[in-house]
Design a protein that fits this description.
Length: 309
């Protein structure tokens, strides 16, 4: 593991002190996804149920030198079936989280959001990156960069709620939430500034609780106190944000990947708003990132308590 991007001790330490989460790992049929599941099990974060073609899983394990002794395998014929079976294991109360393997995100999410047999709740699903940026000094949550393409105001309310819930699970009692745009002033020419202003007013009126919101804020003003001072922004959020709410999926995805590749950040990825946490990493993510995602899911499960019916 790269020393510069090593996760801060508190996340992993807190997760190691909690019970392992039984996790349905959907289609772990390549070396990175299977290695991550085995490594997370070794850390005591998850108790994996490997859901996929058994012969292929064992072939991958043998090629990578992974020991599957004691791990449950639920055999399925293909990736679509793996996604559906992973969801079914949660519905049967045999698993308390789902972890994405080597299948496409769309395959897994389609099974999760199915109205009759999925894991939907009244809240909209959204993705949050937990970015560990060496130069920032504390976890930085970026949302939504993987699920909601061009969210409207009502959808952004759930996106903010989900991110605040995750921040609380990470031990951030009153997270500072920066609603991002390209500028700091409200203008009808940029919908993101109108949405930001509305979200902040909703927080003032108690429609959004648990965090401190401000926006619109440009990225530099959200994370740099010096930039905020230079632009005359007086805010409890500016310069020290815990959560960055992107205007849309494209900007959020680009931001998260820039932090990862240009700022040496380690990124954990989870989807919230379902009945259980969804551990969702890119197929290009390192084993380190995937294991960190499992640790985050452990903290989420501990904070949420029993799975709702």
């Amino acid at each position: 593991m790269a020393t510069a991007a090593s996760p801060p001790p508190e996340i992993l330490t807190r997760a190691r002190g909690l019970p392992a989460v039984v996790t349905a790992v959907a289609h772990p049929c390549d070396v990175p996804s299977l290695t991550a599941a085995v490594a997370a099990a070794g850390e005591g974060f998850i108790e994996p149920i490997l859901v996929g073609p058994e012969a292929r899983i064992r072939e991958v394990a043998a090629g990578a030198g992974l020991d599957l002794t004691g791990l449950r395998i639920v055999s399925t014929p293909h990736s679509h079936a793996s996604a559906e079976r992973a969801v079914e294991l949660v519905r049967l109360a045999e698993a308390a989280a789902i972890m994405k393997g080597s299948l496409h995100t769309d395959e897994l999410m389609a099974a999760i959001v199915r109205r009759e047999a999925g894991l939907r709740t009244e809240r909209r699903l959204s993705h949050v990156f937990v970015m560990l940026v060496p130069s920032y000094g504390r976890p930085l949550l970026v949302t939504d960069a993987a699920v909601n393409i061009d969210p409207l105001l009502e959808e952004k309310v759930d996106i903010v709620h989900n991110a605040i819930q995750l921040a609380h699970a990470l031990g951030i009692a009153r997270p500072r939430v920066a609603i991002l745009s390209a500028v700091e002033t409200v203008t009808s020419k940029l919908r993101s500034t109108i949405d930001a202003a509305a979200l902040c007013k909703m927080a003032e009126r108690g429609q959004i609780t648990g965090g401190l919101l401000d926006g619109p804020l440009a990225f530099d003003n959200a994370i740099s106190a010096e930039a905020a001072r230079t632009k005359g922004i007086d805010s409890e959020v500016a310069g020290r944000a815990d959560i960055l709410v992107a205007p849309d999926l494209e900007s959020g995805n680009i931001l998260a990947k820039q932090l990862e590749y240009f700022a040496s950040a380690t990124a954990a990825g989870v989807v919230l708003g379902a009945r259980v946490p969804i551990i969702l990493n890119s197929r290009a993510d390192s084993v380190e990132s995937r294991v960190l995602s499992c640790a985050v899911a452990v903290l989420l499960c501990q904070a949420r308590g029993p799975i709702p019916p």
